[in-house]
Amino acid sequence: MLCKQHFYFYNGSYNVRIINGFSNNSSLPLVVWCVSGERGDIGGRALQERDDYGWTVTTTGLFWSSSRFVCTMKWDGKRKRFEAFQADRDRYRCGVLRQCFWLVKEDGFYFSNDGVQWIKDFPWM
């Protein structure tokens, strides 16, 4: 018997985007590499100031709560692994337009579902 809290029935697409929000790192890029259990390695990028890296997560039918995209970020000797998209957490948090934006800055990682209002989610360490 399946428990309701472990799956959801809904269709749609989510736009996930990671933005280099550093104020002065033109010579030192933010390196991003992401993987998914469902899609495998989706690749990475070296982002210069204000560059972004994005992809679409499409959900159809039963979408298990364990669906996620994990990214590793590297910058100036720092390294951080985090969930850029996680179904349980983000199905409401990304808003009605299903926008999941991450702005990476010197002091941490900020989330927004509209690209305007940013809330600090966690620090680098």
From TrEMBL:
Principal localisation: secreted
InterPro entries: Self-incomp_S1
Source species, domain of life: Eukaryota
Compartments, record wording: Secreted
Pfam families: Self-incomp_S1 (PF05938)
GO terms of biological process kind: rejection of self pollen
One Gene Ontology cellular component annotation held by this UniProt entry: extracellular region
Key words, A-Z: Secreted, Self-incompatibility, Signal
Family in the record: Belongs to the plant self-incompatibility (S1) protein family.
Protein name as annotated: S-protein homolog
Organism: Sesamum angolense
Organism lineage string: Eukaryota, Viridiplantae, Streptophyta, Embryophyta, Tracheophyta
